[in-house]
């Protein structure tokens, strides 16, 4: 599931493959931009903003994409078979003499002027993996609506950018509160610590192919375990802390996992 760390890794792969190279192939398979031709232009860089990808191209153009739940970019060498999915799922192809980047199942794909990027990412809160990270602003944003469930507030990219459903569940477990607890009931020291832990976890996983929250960076202690995650995806399995079966319910149409014994607060 693409979250801030996954999107950053994708941006790095695309930047390595495309930046500084002239496009020899351009195919945007969305109706609005189907006739756009980027061939002959040089890719300047590929950067991540929260969960958004910005591929900047000479002549002041930016290709904006978003992976959401199951979108993906794959990079292939000359003659290499494309294995990211069937052809009808391809939304974008950007090729150079040495590499071809193929975007699959991209729910958002648009071409805009680079000077207009803020129109698509300007609403984002501080980026947990970005150079402009501001924990104080992120904390204020998170606590701005006291009655809002914590899980929903963590997922709102306008508060802080980069947290997805996996980190939402894991962070609530580490804080020992349920995702349905109103943010106004969080003690300020705990809320501050939670924002810091979010930063710590995404930083620790920014270069890892397999995300983990139970390793040495876990801020709230653990026993020895081979499990990569504390609660996410572990419905009905024993909690790593107390052995109580993990529960699962929907929050904002997303599967949410928590321990009914370790985490206090309202439930679904």
UniProtKB/TrEMBL annotation:
Its cofactor is Zn(2+). GO terms for molecular function: class I DNA-(apurinic or apyrimidinic site) endonuclease activity; hydrolase activity, acting on glycosyl bonds. Keywords: DNA damage, DNA repair, DNA-binding, Endonuclease, Glycosidase, Hydrolase, Lyase, Metal-binding, Multifunctional enzyme, Nuclease, Zinc, Zinc-finger. Its EC number is 4.2.99.18. It holds the Pfam family H2TH. Residues 230-264 form the FPG-type domain. Residues 2-121 form the Formamidopyrimidine-DNA glycosylase catalytic domain. The keyword Transmembrane does not apply. It is an enzyme of class 4 (lyase). Belongs to the FPG family. This is DNA-(apurinic or apyrimidinic site) lyase. The lineage of its organism: Bacteria, Bacillati, Actinomycetota, Actinomycetes, Kitasatosporales.
């Amino acid at each position: 599931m693409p979250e801030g760390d996954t999107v950053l890794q994708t941006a790095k792969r695309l930047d390595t493959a495309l930046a500084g190279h002239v496009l020899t192939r351009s195919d945007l398979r969305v109706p609005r931009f189907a006739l756009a031709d980027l061939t002959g232009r040089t890719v300047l860089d590929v950067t991540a903003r929260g969960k958004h990808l910005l591929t900047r191209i000479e002549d002041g153009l930016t290709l904006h994409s978003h992976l959401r739940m199951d979108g993906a970019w794959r990079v292939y060498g000359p003659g290499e078979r494309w294995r990211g999915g069937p052809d009808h799922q391809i939304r974008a192809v950007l090729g150079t003499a040495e590499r071809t980047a193929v975007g699959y199942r991209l729910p958002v794909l648009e071409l805009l002027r680079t000077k207009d990027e803020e129109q698509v990412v300007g609403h984002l809160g501080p980026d947990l993996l970005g150079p402009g990270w501001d924990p104080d602003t992120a904390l204020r944003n998170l606590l701005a609506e006291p009655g809002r469930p914590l899980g929903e507030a963590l997922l709102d990219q306008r508060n802080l950018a980069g947290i997805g459903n996996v980190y939402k569940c894991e962070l609530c477990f580490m804080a020992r509160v349920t995702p349905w607890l109103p943010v106004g009931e969080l003690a300020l020291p705990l809320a501050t610590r939670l924002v810091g832990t979010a930063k710590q976890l995404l930083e620790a996983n920014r270069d890892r192919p397999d995300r983990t929250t139970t390793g040495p960076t876990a801020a709230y202690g653990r026993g020895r375990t081979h499990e990569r995650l504390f609660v996410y995806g572990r419905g009905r399995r024993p909690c790593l802390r107390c052995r109580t079966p993990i529960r699962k319910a929907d929050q904002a149409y997303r599967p949410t996992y928590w321990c009914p014994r370790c985490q206090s607060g309202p439930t679904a």
